[in-house]
Amino acid sequence: MSKFNFLSSPQKWIYLSYFGIFLILFTLGLFHFDNKIRRGQQAQGRSILKTLIKNQDQQFKTYGKFTPNLENLYRGTSKGIGTYKFKMTVESDQVFFEAIPIIWRRVSYSGALFKIKTDNSIVLVGGICKSPSSSMTAPIPIQPPFPNFHQVRCPLDAELVESMKFSK
Fold first, then answer.
1. What is the end-to-end Cα distance of the chain in Å, rounded?
2. C-alpha distances in angstroms, 16 versus 13, 24, 58, 60, 92?
3. pTM of the model
4. CA 115, 117, 120 angle in degrees (round to 5)?
5. CA 51 → CA 19, 56, 69, 106, distances in Å?
6. Nearest by Cα to 109 from 155, 164, 67, 165
7. pLDDT digits over 80-93, tens only?
8. Which of 3, 47, 84, 96 could form a disulfide with 89 if both were Cys (CB 3.0 to 4.6 A apart)?
9. Tell me: the pLDDT tens digits for 65-122?
10. Is pLDDT at 1 greater than 80 in this prediction?
11. Contact 5, 12 (CB under 8 A)
């Protein structure tokens, strides 16, 4: 009388092949799902940063100066719940923002708003730079635009993803 043993069965390779294919498809599905979530969270962080820059422009138009209080700028947006931590540095004629991911495998962003004097008017020029890959540090320093050119300059390893121009 012979006992059936799965390990010596000729069908084991068929079962192992099906299991291997299932495992590969399952792993690919997890990576796809993770990438979709990551891209959505990065878009949210970038959107919040853009809103902060626009709200700082409104502060300048209303009060003639930049606000040093980051909490004043969150109106009309969430605070990046669980995805990004935001920092702001205000100087008399420029504002710098950092959007640092709280969760690993996310890109970081930096933003800036510069007060540029042209002829008889003031123009505010803003922009957002993105780190080239996952990073827990924002790409800094963002440089002001060249004369007669209304686009901020990102650091060498960063990519300009948003350019903004506001007139007073």
1. 94
2. 5, 12, 63, 66, 67
3. 0.80
4. 135
5. 48, 8, 15, 20
6. 155
7. 566 899 999 999 89
8. 96
9. 999 998 888 776 665 566 899 999 999 899 999 999 998 888 999 999 999 988 788 8
10. no
11. no
Contact in structure between 56 and 74 (CB atoms under 8 Å): no
8-33 burial code (b ≥16 CB/10 A, e <16): eeeeeeeeeeeeeeeeeeeeeeeeee
Name the token pair of 20. 């291997």
* Residues contacting residue 66 through CB under 8 Å, at least 6 positions apart: 56, 59, 60, 90, 92, 95, 113
Identify the DSSP state of 130.
Answer: E
List pLDDT tens digits, range 121-155. Answer: 889 999 999 998 888 888 889 999 988 888 999 99
CA distance 64 to 168: 10
How many residues belong to the chain? 168
